[in-house]
Write a structure and sequence with these properties.
This protein has three domains: 233 residues, no CATH class; 49 residues, Ribbon (Laminin), CATH 2.10.25; 57 residues, Laminin, CATH 2.10.25. It contains four helices and 27 strands. A seven-stranded mixed sheet has the order 4-5-6-7-8-19-12, with no helix packed on it. Strands 10-9-18-13-16 form a five-stranded antiparallel sheet. A hairpin with a 4-residue loop joins strand 7 and strand 8. The longest helix has 12 residues. The protein is globular, with a radius of gyration of 29 Å.
Length: 352
């Protein structure tokens, strides 16, 4: 089937991201820190007075009695404080030819994260489209301008490289995207080979294209209608320099913490200093790492001395060299000739 993948699939709109209101209050005692299998560290929280403003999440019990974490109606599967990222499950939009009615059925999706701390990661996500059609048009819009991209030839291949599967990058500071299919989409001529097309913004390195996605509904059903999506998050809409002037709202309140400007839009993040770990958003949240108790990450083949924020690794007394790599050797003045050692041994066991 040498027809072309056709879709005027999506619009990525660049909307201003308003930073979350700044409230440095710590969570109240008794606040939940876990929902199902997901850890929920402050500034995130579940329930009233448990999060920094703008970071409140819901823990819902779904069918089967499993607890799952949500922001709005989007499930969150993990949160990283050091990376300033969260992974969500984004809905897959689809459009299929219905042979019984000779019409098009579809279900499209938009995700609006404006006025929240989140924006889509431009480094880790790609807009991905799968399927076949005859109208080769796609469009990405950012502000008033639009960029058109070539569509894909519908020929089976093992990678998402523009043949049956297309991917495109997204701009920075993006908080809203919408998927739609061209009004002139018509797969009646190819329905017996590929009756559906799919489109979703997803985490690129977690996506593996299978040729069966073109000819079956496997892509949608294998993923339960969703795909992983990474969002960057940040505190407020100020730089570190500006935020640090107001100590009542500044978020990096733990000693041994530092402020880092967001690399994807406005705002900033907090991290523990090198040699410390924990939560920089709560008082005394950054704790010293005991490097001596973790020999796998901090190898020491000698004497290990833990220090605040660092450690020392010495060769044992009477030796010198590199204790980290295990190359400690005996110092020269400690060495004795073999004959001397034998004489000493004899003098110990055979006194005159």
């Amino acid at each position: 089937m040498g027809v072309m993948l056709g879709y005027r699939l999506f619009q990525l709109l660049m909307l201003p991201l308003v930073g979350a209101a700044t409230s440095a209050a710590a969570p109240l005692p008794g606040c939940r820190t876990r929902c199902g299998e997901v850890d929920v560290p402050y500034p995130f929280g579940i329930g009233p007075n448990c999060s920094r403003e703008g970071f409140s999440l819901d823990c819902n019990t779904t069918t089967g009695g499993h607890e799952k974490l949500f922001v709005f109606n989007v499930e969150i599967v993990n949160i990283s404080l050091p990376l300033g990222q969260a992974r969500m499950l984004n809905a897959i939009s689809w459009q299929c030819y219905n042979v019984s009615t000779n019409s098009i059925d579809y279900n499209t999706w938009s995700l609006n994260l404006t006025n929240t701390p989140y924006r889509f990661s431009d480094d880790l996500n790609k807009f991905t489209a799968i399927g076949c059609d005859t109208s080769p048009t796609s469009e990405i819009s950012k502000g008033p301008t639009a960029t058109r991209a070539d569509a894909c030839l519908c020929v089976t291949t093992s990678s998402c490289s523009g043949i049956g599967c297309c991917q495109t990058t997204i701009p920075k500071d993006l908080a809203y995207y919408e998927v739609w299919f061209a009004s002139n989409f018509n797969s009646s001529s190819v329905w017996n080979f590929s009756d559906c097309s799919y489109a979703v913004l997803l985490e690129a390195n977690r996506f593996e294209f299978l040729t069966s996605y073109i000819t079956t509904t496997q892509f949608w059903y294998n993923n339960n209608g969703t795909a992983p999506l990474v969002v960057d998050w940040a505190i407020g809409n100020e730089t570190c320099e500006v935020a640090q002037r107001d100590k009542t709202s500044y978020a990096c309140i733990s000693e041994h913490s530092e402020c880092l400007n967001s690399s994807n839009g406005p705002g900033y993040l907090c991290n523990c200093l090198r040699g410390y770990h924990g939560n920089p958003y709560v008082a005394q949240g950054c704790q010293d790492i005991d490097e001596c108790s973790d020999k796998d990450q901090y190898p020491c083949h000698g004497i290990c001395q833990n220090l605040p924020g660092s450690h020392n690794c010495f060769c044992p007394v009477g030796t010198y060299g590199d204790a980290v790599n295990g190359t400690c050797t005996q110092t020269q003045h400690q060495k004795l000739p073999s004959s001397a050692k034998v004489a000493i041994g004899k003098s110990l066991f055979f006194p005159p």
